[in-house]
Design brief:
Layout lengths: L1 H18 L7 E7 L9 H8 L5 E2 L2 E2 L1 E5 L3 H10 L5 H15 L5 E3 L2 H10 L3 E6 H4 L5 E9 L1
Parallel strand pairs: 4-5, 4-6
Antiparallel strand pairs: 1-6, 1-7, 2-3
Length: 148
């Protein structure tokens, strides 16, 4: 009986550990291409951008790229950037797209593809774990959005 409980507890701990960021001191950062003219975006601009509203900077309309490479990443984004649940966020963005003719943010489920897309487009804005982009010279980190 004790052996079964120990195995169950161990499996539970591994499951929880798998949903956490790579390190206990992880930071979610706002990123753009190194070629981007954007130097800073405030919290309201970031929220508007990812809710599907038009945000322009230096005459360029910015394009949000959603990073859904990891469940934890999306959870932190939803809670700390747009302050919504997954379902509420999806409904809000879809409603704006249908009513206002706005395009839905492009969703990426692979971090390498996302980073390459951000690096190639000076109007793209996204978010990623700092450890995934801090040494990439093609990417500029604008600010820390969340820190563990």
């Amino acid at each position: 009986m004790k052996n079964k409980r120990a195995k169950w507890l161990l499996a539970l701990l591994f499951g929880v550990a798998a949903t956490l960021p790579a390190s206990a001191d992880e930071a979610l950062v706002l990123i753009v291409s190194a070629d981007s003219k954007v130097e800073q975006l405030d919290s309201l601009e970031v929220r508007k951008l990812f809710l599907g509203m038009t945000v322009a900077h230096n005459g360029d309309r910015l394009r949000p790229l959603l990073n859904e490479a990891e469940p934890r990443l999306k959870e932190v984004f939803l809670q700390n950037i747009v302050s919504m649940t997954d379902m509420t966020y999806d409904r809000r963005v879809l409603r704006l797209a249908l009513q206002g003719g706005r395009s839905l943010p492009v969703v990426y489920s692979d971090k390498s593809t996302l980073i390459n897309s951000v690096a190639a487009d000076p109007t793209a804005v996204s978010f990623a774990w700092a450890t995934d982009v801090q040494h990439d010279k093609r990417i500029k980190i604008l600010r820390v959005l969340w820190h563990d």
